[in-house]
Amino acid sequence: PSLKVLNLARTKISGDIPPSLFDCPLQILRLGSSLLQLPFPDGINNLNNTVEYLELSDFSGTDTIPDSIQALSKLKTLDLSINSLTGTIPAFLGDLMELETLMLDNNALTGPIPEFESPNFRALEIHNNHLTGTIPRSVASKAVYILANHNDLGPDLDRNLFLNNTRLESLVISQNKFVGRVPQFALNSSLTVLDL
Q1: Which distant-in-sequence residues (6+ apart) come within 8 Å of 69 by Cβ?
Q2: 42 with 16: CB under 8 angstroms?
Q3: Tens digit of pLDDT per residue, the chain (196 long)?
Q4: Helix, strand or coil for residue 18?
Q5: Helix (H) and strand (E) counts for the chain?
Q6: Are 52 and 77 in contact (CB under 8 A)?
Q7: CA 103 to mean position of chain CA atoms
Q8: Half-sphere exposure of 77 (CA within 13 A, CB side)
Q9: How far apart are CA 190 and CA 184, in angstroms?
Q10: pTM attached to this predicted model
């Protein structure tokens, strides 16, 4: 099999996904907002050497972030938004060394945001959850976009947290529990959107 892109997102097709599809060298798998059933973790485990983009937004396959995702060593984009996911953001997501974009918004996730070790990490979308703590330094130092509004983050916000990030363009952290003065990083020359 040679199928590399499978986009079944936002379709009316329903039923089980044939297991043989996971034998293909898929690089992009989009199943968001579909009526399909995805077997966790069996199907995902077969993708570990190929998949770079995995979209399971608004998908009814699971209520927690599946452990099987940690085997996806080539993963660059993961979208698990709008899933009513509960529990914490697992630390193994931070260990995915190719990860660039993580979308976990519009769930019911709790606890702190883990560190993200990928040198190319650029976008974190975690708005509309119940996350606590603050933005980790590994994210603050390299992300281009951070959407973390409508959580329980705070109350402390290091005024210099994003100061050395010359790539940061958009920081949205309003509707949290941060207190204090306007942070020094508001003067960051790369920032085009700052929503505190």
Answers
A1: 44, 54, 75, 78, 92, 93
A2: no
A3: 789 998 988 887 777 777 777 788 899 988 887 766 665 545 666 676 789 999 988 876 678 898 889 989 999 999 999 988 999 999 999 999 999 999 999 999 999 999 999 999 999 999 999 999 999 999 999 999 999 999 999 998 888 889 889 999 999 999 999 998 888 888 877 999 999 9
A4: coil
A5: 2, 13
A6: yes
A7: 3
A8: 12
A9: 13
A10: 0.92
**What whole-number distance in Å separates Cα of residue 173 and Cα of residue 153?**
8
Dist. CA 76–CA 72, nearest whole Å: 9
Render 154-190 in DSSP notation, one character per residue. BS---TTTTTT-SS--EEE--SS---SSPPGGGG-TT
**CA dist., res. 156 & res. 194, Å (int):** 17
Q: Using CA atoms, how far apart are residues 167 and 73, in angstroms rounded to an integer? A: 25
Dig out the tokens for 15 from the structure: 């039923």
Is 81 within 8 Å of 106 (Cβ atoms)?
yes
Measure the CA–CA gap between 149 and 175, rounded to whole angstroms. Answer: 5
| Owner of token pair 């993580």 | 102
Kindly give, in sequence order, each residue whose CB lies less than 8 Å from that of residue 120, ignoring residues fewer than 6 positions away.
76, 98, 99, 100
